[in-house]
């Protein structure tokens, strides 16, 4: 296995699934891609899946981008479309998880971020930071916007970030990353490529049969500090 500083990157998504934190915890340094293009259409940038008494639903933050910038705007330019989502999300989370064993301690992390953050990036990063601290993840975390003024696209972005942060190993997600990465380009720059392999754990849940691939909040509300053993290798 390659040695050296291991770097991972990812867009700052809303209450991401546990695999996001698994990759974050497995790296020495993690970069929030806050300055890359915000995706068109449906993505996990502003929504994620939770389990409610009525089944699995998407919890979605309504967002808007500056006029004429659709498909071109970065995450940093994304704003909330209205303020009513805050109350809806807090109410839905409370109704869905108030019977969970660790509701009080996790809700105390979630609620202030939802109530106080003024942009999607600040909301998403704030929640990921709060949950990472709760999980005891000590990985160094930085933002792309505070690391590089300019950068390439796709694998060139990875190269640029690794060089800026003196990383010799790039830790990629095990899913779409396999098609996304230009292994030859990474090798040409002396960057070793590794894939993070994450198997979604089965744990006690509310509301019937077990449902995989949910937001990290489902794991946290149900398992509390013990969630760490499912996320941190």
Helix proportion range: 25-40%
Name of the CATH architecture: 3-Layer(aba) Sandwich
Our estimate of the beta-strand percent is 15-25%
Content-based structural category = alpha/beta
Sheet with most strands: strand arrangement: 7-2-1-8-9
Number of domains: 1
N-end to C-end Cα span: 16 Å
Number of strands: 9
Average per-residue pLDDT, rounded, comes to 94
Uncertain stretches: none
Cα gyration radius (Å): 18 Å
Main sheet, how many strands, which sense, barrel? 5 strands, parallel
What gross morphology would you assign? globular
- Secondary-structure element string: EHEEEEEHHHEHEHHEHH
The CATH topology assignment is Rossmann fold
Tally of individual helices: 9
CATH class: Alpha Beta
Summarize this entry quickly.
Helix content is 36%, strand content 17%.
Question: What is the topology?
Answer:
Layout: E1 6-10, H1 18-26, E2 29-32, E3 47-52, E4 55-60, E5 63-64, E6 79-80, H2 85-97, H3 103-116, H4 120-134, E7 140-143, H5 154-164, E8 169-173, H6 177-180, H7 183-188, E9 192-196, H8 216-223, H9 228-231
Parallel strand pairs: 1-2, 1-8, 2-7, 8-9
Antiparallel strand pairs: 3-4, 5-6
Helix pairs in contact: 2-3, 3-4, 3-8
């Amino acid at each position: 296995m390659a040695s050296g500083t291991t770097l991972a990157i990812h867009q700052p998504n809303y209450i991401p699934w546990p695999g996001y934190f698994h990759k974050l915890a497995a790296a020495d340094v993690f970069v929030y891609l806050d300055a890359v293009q915000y995706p068109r259409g449906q993505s996990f940038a502003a929504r994620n899946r939770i389990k409610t008494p009525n089944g699995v639903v998407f919890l979605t933050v309504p967002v808007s981008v500056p006029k004429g910038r659709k498909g071109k705007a970065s995450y940093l330019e994304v704003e909330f479309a209205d303020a009513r989502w805050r109350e809806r999300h807090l109410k839905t989370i409370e109704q869905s998880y108030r019977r969970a064993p660790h509701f009080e301690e996790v809700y105390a992390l979630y609620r202030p971020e939802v109530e106080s953050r003024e942009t999607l990036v600040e909301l998403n990063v704030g929640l990921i930071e709060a949950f990472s601290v709760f999980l005891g993840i000590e990985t160094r975390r930085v933002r792309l916007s505070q690391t590089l003024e300019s950068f390439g696209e796709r694998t060139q972005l990875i190269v640029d970030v690794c060089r800026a942060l003196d990383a010799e190993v790039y830790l990629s997600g095990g899913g779409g990353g396999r098609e996304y990465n230009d292994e030859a380009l990474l090798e040409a720059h002396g960057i070793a490529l590794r894939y993070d392999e994450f198997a979604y754990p089965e744990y006690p849940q509310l509301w019937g049969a077990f449902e995989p691939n949910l937001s990290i909040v489902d794991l946290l509300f149900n398992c509390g500090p013990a969630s760490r053993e499912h996320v941190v290798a």
